[in-house]
């Protein structure tokens, strides 16, 4: 009886500890987000840091987006063709490729690729700055780290992610066209006509909204993980701490994007 | 007459988890003077410095800088107080993805409305002051530890702060490089007249630069005295520290009994 009581007590203690930790982390992340968004809106507005971040998050991701977008469109056309052929609806291939890309695959795959390329780099950069007291140095110089370091990344993420998604969609559609029209002999007019008929503004809007939210999620999670590296319960010290935190930031932001993708689709469809 | 108090710690207490590091710490720093905080490694000297910088908040007590309790003030008030700070961190904390020039220019670019030409003039003056004329285009990883410290000092002084904090300014440097840092400290303080707080274990050399020496031992400040008073203090902690770091200065009664008999 005594043993059971002590086990129960330990379980409760553990549950309480975990709940408190979860609350603490959630609160910290929430305050971080609102502080950063507040700094985005607050003057002074400096263009150079934002342009640098757009270059880092956006321009330098273009190649990987072109590559993945093209092949995604190509494989969509290939799979879609053999599925639609069973129902004699090969003519709908254009609309199937376009709708899949605009509504789902464009924003999601772009976000996942950008997380892998830029999100991980943001966590590592901010985390190393935290570990080597560079963020403390900024604070001591009365330079607001949120404004100087994080706010430009938020602005850049919100601008770059929709643009990269557009690029992904466009090259994806052309990849689909190359396979559908070029390899599988679908009539070009039919391909584009079905696309023209099926795609509505709402589909494009959904893609833009998703890209904006994914951009926000990526920058938020990747920055906050690096920024509070030193408060990580599993020990955010040294190179190992940075590597562990970077991995966890990539995993958490990728999972969050897939969850939010479902939620946004469910709300908007 | 004693000058005005610019930093005052009143009954500051701090624990990390179950480990108490500071217990009712009281300390004062006066305008234009140099306070050196000494003590064995791991006693919490840097923790005191972090309290003064507002990077750590105490569990109890007050940390007054220019009469403002930075332990219990808003972030914007703290930022205002920090505008008069310059800091040389133990590991220098230079921005490693920026050149030496940009590191020193950063506070000017972010905190002032100076033109790029004025910033250039200011940074070049500081680079010359620190004998770093040719290092402006290098990255921190491309220069030696001693040069990094000088860049850190130049960055700390670029906005002419009224209080400068030094956390172990000579750690990891050889004797010549250490002397160079001390020379620059002495020269810049004479020029700019800032108040200095130095955490160091470079005893007794650091005594020559200090107006007051405070020993942190047993979680408390064991007297904040002039270097001469410090070396003659009867406080057992101070006496033990002086003997450990400098060797016994005064002979014991047993060794020179004739002297003690006369007295």
From TrEMBL, chain B:
Residues 7-243 form the ABC transporter domain. Gene3D superfamilies: P-loop containing nucleotide triphosphate hydrolases. GO terms for molecular function: ATP binding; ATP hydrolysis activity. It holds the Pfam family ABC_tran. Keywords: ATP-binding, Nucleotide-binding, Transport. It comes from the Bacteria. This is ABC transporter ATP-binding protein. It comes from Geothermobacter hydrogeniphilus.
């Amino acid at each position: 009886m005594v043993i059971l009581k002590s086990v129960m007590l330990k379980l409760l203690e553990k549950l309480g500890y975990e709940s408190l930790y979860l609350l603490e982390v959630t609160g910290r992340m929430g305050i971080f987000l609102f502080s950063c968004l507040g700094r985005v809106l607050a003057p002074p507005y400096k263009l150079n840091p934002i342009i640098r971040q757009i270059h880092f998050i956006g321009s330098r991701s273009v190649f990987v987006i072109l590559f993945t977008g093209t092949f995604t469109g190509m494989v969509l056309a290939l799979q879609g063709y053999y599925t639609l052929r069973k129902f004699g609806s090969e003519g709908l291939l254009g609309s199937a490729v376009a709708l899949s890309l605009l509504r789902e695959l464009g924003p999601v795959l772009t976000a996942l690729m950008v997380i892998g390329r830029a999100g991980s780099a943001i966590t590592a950069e901010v985390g190393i700055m935290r570990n080597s007291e560079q963020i403390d140095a900024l604070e001591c110089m009365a330079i607001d780290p949120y404004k100087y370091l994080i706010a430009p990344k938020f602005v850049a993420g919100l601008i770059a992610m929709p643009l990269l998604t557009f690029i992904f969609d466009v090259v994806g559609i052309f990849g689909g066209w190359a396979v559908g029209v070029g390899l599988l002999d679908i009539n070009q007019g039919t391909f584009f006509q079905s696309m023209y008929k099926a795609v509505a503004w709402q589909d494009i809007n959904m893609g833009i909204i998703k890209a904006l939210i994914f951009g926000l999620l990526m920058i938020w999670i990747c920055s906050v993980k690096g920024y509070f590296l030193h408060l990580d319960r599993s020990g955010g010290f040294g190179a190992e701490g940075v590597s562990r935190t970077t991995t966890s930031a990539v995993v958490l932001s990728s999972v969050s994007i897939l969850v939010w993708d479902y939620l946004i689709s469910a709300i908007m469809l | 007459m004693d000058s005005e108090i610019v930093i005052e710690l009143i009954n500051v207490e701090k624990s990390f988890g179950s480990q108490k590091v500071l217990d009712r710490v009281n300390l004062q720093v006066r305008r234009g003077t140099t306070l050196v905080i000494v003590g064995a490694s791991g006693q919490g000297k840097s923790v005191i410095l972090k309290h003064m910088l507002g990077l750590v908040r105490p569990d109890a007590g007050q940390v007054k800088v220019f009469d403002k309790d930075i332990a219990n003030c808003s972030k914007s008030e703290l930022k205002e107080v920090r505008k008069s700070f310059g800091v040389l961190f133990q590991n220098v904390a230079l921005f490693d993805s920026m050149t030496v020039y940009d590191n020193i220019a950063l506070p000017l670019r972010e905190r002032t409305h100076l033109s790029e030409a004025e910033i250039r003039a200011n940074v070049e003056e500081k680079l010359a002051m620190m004998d770093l004329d040719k290092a402006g285009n290098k990255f921190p990883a491309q220069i030696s530890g001693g040069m990094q410290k000088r860049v850190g000092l130049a960055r700390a002084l670029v906005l002419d702060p009224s209080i400068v904090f030094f956390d172990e300014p000579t750690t990891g440097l050889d004797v010549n490089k250490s002397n160079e840092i001390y020379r620059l400290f002495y020269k810049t303080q004479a020029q700019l007249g800032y108040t200095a707080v130095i955490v160091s274990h470079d005893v007794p050399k650091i005594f020559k630069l200090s107006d007051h020496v405070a020993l942190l031992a047993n979680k408390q400040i064991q007297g904040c005295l002039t270097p001469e008073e410090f070396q003659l203090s009867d406080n057992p902690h101070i006496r033990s520290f002086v003997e450990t770091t400098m060797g016994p200065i005064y002979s014991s009664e047993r060794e020179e009994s004739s002297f003690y008999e006369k007295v």
